[in-house]
Structure formats: C-alpha cells, structure tokens
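Run folding on both entries below.
>entry_1
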Amino acid sequence: MQLVGYDAADAGLLVSDGDAPSADAATTTTDDAATAPVEYVALDPGTELDYRLGDRHCAGVVVDDGHRPCDDPAVPYCSAHTSTWVCARCTGTCLKDEMDCFDDHAVYLAAFAPDTFKVGVTKEWRLETRLREQGADRGAHLRTVENGRIAREIEAGLADEIPDRVRVPEKRAGLGRTVDEAAWQTLLADFDPLETVAFDYGLDLDERPVAETVATGRVRGTKGRLLVLDHGGSTYAVDLRDLVGYEVTDGGTDRRLQSSLGAFG
C-alpha cells in the first residue's frame, strides 16, 4: 500500500492498494498503464490509524479509474508527476494561452492564530471550502469580482502589505491558540468586508502538539492539511503532504517518538 494523496477540505487520506513498478519498468507512468484501487480513509475525530511508514518514493498520479504508481525516488512527486497550477502565479496578466477564469471570484483575508494574516482569491462558490482547506481560523470576504484576472490584480496590490501565503510551520505554531482579536479588527478596519466567518476545528488542545511524520494514533482532528493525532500519551501534528509517497503496512509505528512539549503557558 502507498499513501498517494490527501483531502485537506474534507479531511481524508488516499491509500493505493497497488505496488510500485518493478525496477526495470519505465519510471514515468503512461495513460494506458494499469491502475490500482484507491481507498479514501476519512480522518474523522476518533478514527484509529495504524499505519507503519516504510520506503518513500513518488506518489504517481491518481486518475478517475485509480492510481498509477511510479518508482522514481523523488518525493512526494517526481518531475513527471509534479503539476503546477499556473493560476497560482497570476498577478493579473493571464499566463495561459487563453483566459478561462470567467466565474465570479472572491477576494478574501484569512487569519491564522495568533496573529498571522494573508490575502487570497478563490471562486466565490468555494470561499468557505478554500478557507477550511488552508486551516484558517477566521475569514473575511472583501469583495466579489467578475473574473479571476481582476481578482488576481487586486490580490497582487494588497500583497504589497499583506502576505499572500502562510507556511505550514506558522500554522502549526498556532495550534491550540486563539486569534489576536485586536490585531484582526485593526486589519479589517481598512476594509468593509461583505461578511466574516470563524471556524472551530474541535481540536481541544491543552498542550502543544509535537511536529512529527507519523500515521499511527487516534485522530483528534484536522486543521487544513495538519492532522492532529494522539498516540502513546502525546499529541502530534502531522503535515499530510509529508505522508504522501510513503509505502505503508498495518501494525503501527515502531519508531520512538518525541513526547509532548507540555501544556500551554
């Protein structure tokens, strides 16, 4: 089995039941290559994970009819299976041969505890989903515009003052903490949001989780792509992307893990 992907919005792991190609097989999979079944493992609170991590290699590609494996050692994806969403680099000048982002787009602010903020854009209909898959604690819908190009222009202008990305370690450091309300309101005072939202991920943390790459334990919950697990009397925060590509077997981890760092001060 191999961990081949994750769903940060609905909290799940994608587990392939197939094996990597043999060493003499072509590294790059083809459209007519055999596919393996993919299981969706929901990461609902209380779920028990019992995976032992083995070797790690390219996660291949998940397609409509299953998973096409790849044995390239690059992780989580080799160059043949690394895809870059060109729209993420857009600042208002379309990078595609033909612009196709004609849906209504929302420009938003997101807050991550305690006081990290970012600006972003997404299709209006998936605004709440986008905030959740990033693990935002708060969100503010600033405005809706008629297409992605205009939204990216606005985002690029705001990004001179407000970051347009937040790294996972910053999000991990905020687990169990609350948003600095004064700082958030000060930021919003420069705008007139159409609406604001707050999210509760139900993690109920009373100690600081340890950063680990492990897939054994009882799921406490997820916050974006951070999976929070209880195992052996300690609590761990796992970046789901760091699990992608690992071959796994049942039986739980056999590694010695660092204990929790203690209660919050």
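>entry_2
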Amino acid sequence: MNFLSHYYFDRNSANQNLVLGTVLPDLVKNAHKDWNFYPQKNEALFTADEQQRQLLQGWKRHLAVDAIFHSSDFFLTETAKLKQLLLPILGDSPVRPSFLAHIGLELLLDHLLVTNRTIDINAFYSHLEKVNDQVLLHFLQQCGCNDTDRFFGFFNSFKSSRYLLSYQKLENISYALQRICMRLWAHPFSETTVALLTEQLEVYKAMLEKNYLSIFEDIENHLK
C-alpha cells in the first residue's frame, strides 16, 4: 500500500510518531532504493524511549498492513483486472504489466481515499511536521542508516512539496507511475502512452470505486 492508504488505519490517532512510523519504511525506500532496515528484528534498541517505541510500533504496523494486503484475494483479483486493461497500451514498453498493475492499484486506492474525503491529506502532513527531528535521527541511526543527511533532504522535500496533494487528479497518478517506472527503466513510456494510461485508469477507477473500501475493512479486522 502507498502512503495515504497506510495513513488510513491511524487517521484518528493523535500520535505523530506512530503516524510517521506507519509510512517510514516507504520514506526510507524513496530516499534511497537500496536501503533495507529491520528495526523489528532489534526491538531492544528502541525500548528505552517512549517516542522510539512509538516509531517502531508504526513501522511494525506498516509491515503488518502490507503483508495482509499483498496476500489478500482483493489484491490478486484487482491487479489481474487492471493488468488486462493495461496490456493493450503497453506495446513495446519495457515495463512489466504486473508491476504497473500492482503500483497502479496502490496509487488508485490513495486517489479514492482523497477524492471521497475519507482521509485528510493536510492532517497527514501536519503529523509529519510535528515529529521531532532528533527523535527520528536517533531512530534512523539505531537502524544503521549511514547517510541521515540524505534521508532528511528527501523527507524535508517530501513535507514541503505536499506532493501527495497531486493525487487528487487522476492524470497525476499516471505521471507518478511514470516516475516510479523511470527508477527501473530509462524510457518506460511515451507521452502518448501516459495519456492512454490515464484513460485506462479512469475505466478501472469506475470498477474499483464500487468496493475499494472492502480491503481497508478487511485489513482493519485482521489488525484487531
């Protein structure tokens, strides 16, 4: 799941450290695609301080949500539907249809949460702004991060740009998918393909919107 979908499960929380923790694994990966941290395997490093424990709690919640989501019938069924819509427009594109369907589903879930006013993006960013940088710095150091300046450079840009606000428009989802694919392929799509991608996402959105909340309800039941 993507940032806003993870936030859904703690959208009513007043704890900024917990909220940050629920999206921190993805923030780390966006800051450096080769970083792999496993604080859940060294919990003793984070138990001495309450704020460190809260960040770890959010981190573990992120892992639990992703595990439930990716093993769900919903994920398998919906990515298969979207893949069939994407296949005709990919042509000579090097992008794997299954990869694009996977990421596309996750971004569309974020889009629907926003457009249907299920979550408040500004409230999400407000939580991130309240996090104490020194607390986060210590957490990252305990994780073994060897370039915290790089992380904070990305994190501060992520907060100031309010990039997730762009998810309110479907065409921005297509461009977000293009940027994600560019991390793996130098020239994933032509501009024509991007336009066709938006058209197919519009078709799929109408299908997904009928039952998209079911996966959130299912995950919540598993988390209890």
